[in-house]
Amino acid sequence: MWAYFKFEFFQFIRNKKNIAIYVILLYFACYYALKIVPTYNPIEKVDVSEIEARYLPRAEFLKNVEIDKGTHYLTSYAVAIFSEWNEYDKARLDALKKHNMKEYAEATSKWYKYSDEMIFPDVMNVFYYNPGYYTYGNNYAKKDGHYAYLYSASRYKGYTEGKSNLSINVFEERTALQTLQRLLDSYLPLILIVSCILFTVDIVLKDRRNPTLLQGLPLSDWRKLIIKGLVSLLGSLIAIIPLSIGLLIIGGRNGFGAFDLPVPIYSFGKDLFSNILMWDYLVQNMLFIVFWFLFIISLLLLVSVLLKNEFVNLLVGSMFVIAEFIYFERGLGAVRNIQWYPTSYVQVGQVISGYRNYLYGSEALTFGSGLTVMGLCTCIFLFFTFLISNQKKFKLL
Amino acid sequence: MIELKNIGVQFSGRDILKDVSVMFNAGEIVGLVAPNGTGKSTLMNVIMNYINPISGKVILNDELEYTNKKNEVKMHQLVSMMPDQSDLYNQISGKEHLKIYSSMWNSNPKLIDSTIQELGMESYINKNTGTYSLGMRQRLCFAMQVVSDTQVMLMDEVMNGLDPTHVELISQILVKKKSEGKTVIVASHLLENLEKYADRIFFMKNGELILVNAISPGFEEREITTVRISEMTDSIKGEISKEFPETKVRSLPNGATLLDVRGYDSGELGNIVEFLKENQITEFSFGKVTLNDLYSMYYQEV
Amino acid sequence: MWKILKTFFVIEKSNKKNIFSCLFVAVFVFSLIFFLKNMDIGNSIKEKSDEYQSISTALGKFQNIDATDSGNGSDLYKNLVRQQQAVSKQKMALKMNLPKVFLDTAIDLANLRAKAFDMEGFDDVAIYLPSKIDNQLDSVFYQYIKKIGMPLSIDSLSYFQFLPYLFGVLGSFWFIFMSIYSCGIMIEEFQHTSLIKGYPITFDKYVLAKCISSMLIVGVFLLELFVCSLPLIYFKGLGNPSYPIAIFNGIFEVYPIYQYIGISILYMICISIFTILLSIILNVLLKNMYLTLFLELLLYIFPMLFPNMISLVPFNPFNYLNFPNLLNGQMIEFAKPVVLTSTHGLIYIGMSITIMIVSVKLFLTTGRLKKV
Questions:
Q1: What subunits make at least 3 CB pairs under 8 angstroms with A?
Q2: In this structure, how many other beta carbons lie within 10 angstroms of the beta carbon of residue C69?
Q3: Complex ipTM > 0.90
Q4: B89 and C365 in contact by Cβ < 8 A?
């Protein structure tokens, strides 16, 4: 067994295709770290001029306004809410002047919470979230703003309560670990899953090129398949190494951040965020991605023994990656049980952070349900692979 | 007919073929015999122009040479090499392979069915070749070349993996092809079989082609030239030399001993038989040198 | 030539890859229909409300002041207020089903926007408004509709309305799909070298035949696009094949749907030939189908990673492979605008094809094929 594992693994490592994948991943990691990260421009920035542009006119207004019977109701309303709003803005400005990050975090957290309370229920559209959300063609600007403000409120609250070193880079989520967190929320899981597909696509079928050499090995087909799957899993996990080089570059430039930074997690039922720690978030993601690897590997093993064609492996694998883009629709979770489709979990980071739930309007997409669905599917695929590979007539090659 | 002129091939500085010049005629079966790695396949690859020789040229029918791609096509129309079994398309049937070859060379489609019949492949010819055994694949490869019906046929290890019946069957087809005026060049290790039907046999050594006749004059003559004793002790050998001082005795690395009896009359031959019988030697034969012995003589020298 | 083609037919018809590719194309078409239905694309009322909101945000950047001509607001402010009015008018026109009003307002709106681009301070509000190119496309589209007097169609899922959308989406992926399809084209042949090497046919003819047989399968894919969309006729009606689509081809103009489809098909065929030849050459050079695939994809995204290269090397055929982007005019939105037109694209791709054919003819021979 062990000997076969080593044999397969060396083949895997020497495979030109696999080397190419590692090289390409390394290239993209560096490209991302060097070219894309510096252009990162978050909507929620630490920006004195932005705060002042809001704070000063309002302060002016509050100073000069006179309320009497004839005052327009909106004016009275503004007076009522601006004073508290401005308190927070002032506290933020003062904290920035004193370079007191802790105080800034505290005031900012309150500011976001209060702003959201004012803006979200506002049906007359007199208040807006940060204009960055209202780009042309964004039909859900208000919902995006709502999520982002609550997210920021929770995040800054976490900074206030936590013990980690704070800095502007941390506030704007520029440090290496936070960049990783943002990436997990976007393309990183997809890249890893696609790499896994490419690693696994030929692991069974490559042997067809020299069948006589391998047919006679004293191992059952099923065991061979399992070992191949393990090799592929190991290989997919190794893909993290070239990617982490990008992380080191970012860390060198913007700081690494800390493992006890807060990561806000959204829960749909309460429309609320709660924080978990960075390491917890990363571990959950890692575990989830491993489950995805297992899912993809078992799927491709099954397709390999069923259809015996590398091209088909590639097509079937990529269908599972792109399927969600086709049926995804905001609020779909209210109508359909999307939590039962394994493809709904393809955005691993977003599932864990609850953003997918927010988009789908569902509370069913959770870490636990994801692992259950993925695990179940993996078992089913493996079971069928087992049945097929143990058939009398079955030939692996 | 196909002529090789001063062909030289080197791989990493080592001479594989050295100034080889030879002519293969129409209506002839030529055998190539040599241990593995001495350049048989290289020679065939040169004839097919799969390998560029560093010197020399291949001339087909006194006019065609591999000077450009057009000529290469023309020559491939007339010269074919047997495909490797591992190169068959596993997902299509044997019959379709034959059809492909027939249409590629524009040969008479009737050949397909007749070849299937001659080689006894009816029972499996419509199955995918992925299901074939080694011998079935080998027969299919041979059949494909027969169907292509080219003037010159190159066959590398054609008898590999075949049982004696099929070896015989294929040999007969080769003889038939020869009678049709084709040039058949066969590399084979089945020496007895080759000896039976090949018109000329070449050994290869140190990058040269050597006609067997040149090593053993009279190899192709139809008379008794040799007494072959498969096993004999050294003391008896000594006695023979004493008893028949004029007879050349030759011991081979494969254990056999050859007595050169060229030009002996029946009386002299009788004396030899009598001597052998006296020494309790029972396994001997009269005839000529076998290819096996020549091979042993030539390649197994210590 | 015919004989080698016949050979390929025999081999290709037993190839699982073709069957699954056909299946994949069909699945793609059906998914796209499903996707369009989900996304509610073509629902003008919804789109107009969102547009209204965007303009409101843009106006939020200004103080509320007198927006009449004689008022003291900036030109841009006045312009935006009038845009907002126009959008509201369109929304109403849609609700009241007044296509003529909608059309006239659309043209007014496009004109207003065209003026706004040069006004002071536009950059601050640019993200809330359609880009210059989008606006120009809108402008030519509505003007054409008005000139011809054609009724506005709002059903994006009728047969002929769906097809350009399908070709537009598929067109962006076509090169990727073709590279996946063709990346192993010669590697498969390399498993059978001893057969192929001896064929009495030159390698370039062999390659040509391989291209033709692959192209026939590509033809099947294209045919499939039309056939799989046929059910839409039953559900949503046929639509109008001469309905205009605004495109950019050096200048802004409109193509009727059939012309757009024609250009798309022409492009797809050229891209297919291009990809197949490229795969053949890379297969022979690299002897590995995945390396071939990766290299092709890298070449494809190279102009996107380094946009400056586009203006530097405008004749790079890879600039043109995403032809729907070309026709959208998206290529001229870069910092350094380059006018890439679809005609140039066809010429450059065609030239690359010729160069590749010549190099196959000159440099590659069957005799050198090695087994992998």
A1: C
A2: 7
A3: no
A4: no
